[in-house]
Amino acid sequence: MALLEAKDIYRSFQGFLALAGVSLSVAEGSFHALVGPNGAGKTTLFNVITGRLRPDRGRITYEGREITGWPTFRIARMGLAISFQRAQPFLSMTVLEAVAVACLGYQGRTFALLKPLRDFKEGLAQAEEALQKVGLEKQSSRRVSELPLGDLKRLDVAIALAGRPKLLLLDEPLAGLSRAERREMVAFIRELLRKEGVTLLFTEHDTEAVLHLADRITVLHQGRVLAEGSPEEIRQNAEVRAAFLGGGA
Ligand code: ADP
């Protein structure tokens, strides 16, 4: 069953057609990659899916409900999370505090004076559990601003998972990492999300990593779907090779 469906999405910017009739179907439990050269429309599609941008035409359905044009917070409440730079607002906090705030926030609670201590303790316990899941328990008392990039990306994922999402969107999760760190991150994402039963939609430039992580790939090119299929089908697709070689991705 499709957890997320985008149907015939159009979006233009000052007359420039960034998305020209894109359809995408993400099956429940799958790891679905969205790839394509720079400017293909990947970020625009992510923004349309998460409600940051309105499509000019087309429909987005999630769990069978139409969510087109819904505000981002309402979409997030339905279990669709985007992990991109989640830790950013928490830079001055410790790792544990950042995840605890996220846990409480997802439950509709916020830190405030006179908040019951029970809520706070619950948040901390959940945060400790989340940090163990992503292997950051030893970093829990470090400041977020002091974390190396690889750990910061793990923290982003921990914060996104605090809301217990069904679908996680990752925008270039490997960007900026060394080759060894990329390999580690791929294993981390795969193991963690399988265990948690989370469906993944991600963009990524590292072709090798995409072929390792994804079980379904959609290739965008100039705002259109150029190809869709299994990693093996995409690897053998001549049109895809031509577009990638020509697009520099
Ligand atoms: P990708 O993520 O695949 O690199 P984007 O979705 O960022 O592609 O961009 C697709 C096209 O739309 C690009 O040509 C980009 O310049 C254009 N675009 C994206 N966002 C805007 C915007 N806010 N204003 C004007 N043009 C934009």
UniProtKB/TrEMBL annotation:
This is Branched-chain amino acid transport system ATP-binding protein. Residues 4-247 form the ABC transporter domain. One of its GO terms (biological process) is L-alanine transport. One of its GO terms (cellular component) is plasma membrane. Keywords: ATP-binding, Nucleotide-binding, Transport. PROSITE patterns: ABC_TRANSPORTER_2 (PS50893). InterPro entries: AAA+_ATPase, ABC_AA/LPS_Transport, ABC_transporter-like_ATP-bd, BCA_ABC_TP_C, P-loop_NTPase. It comes from the Bacteria. The keyword Transport applies. Coiled coil: none annotated. PANTHER family: AMINO ACID ABC TRANSPORTER ATP-BINDING PROTEIN, CONSERVED COMPONENT OF ABC TRANSPORTER FOR NATURAL AMINO ACIDS-RELATED. The keyword Transferase does not apply. One of its GO terms (molecular function) is L-phenylalanine transmembrane transporter activity.
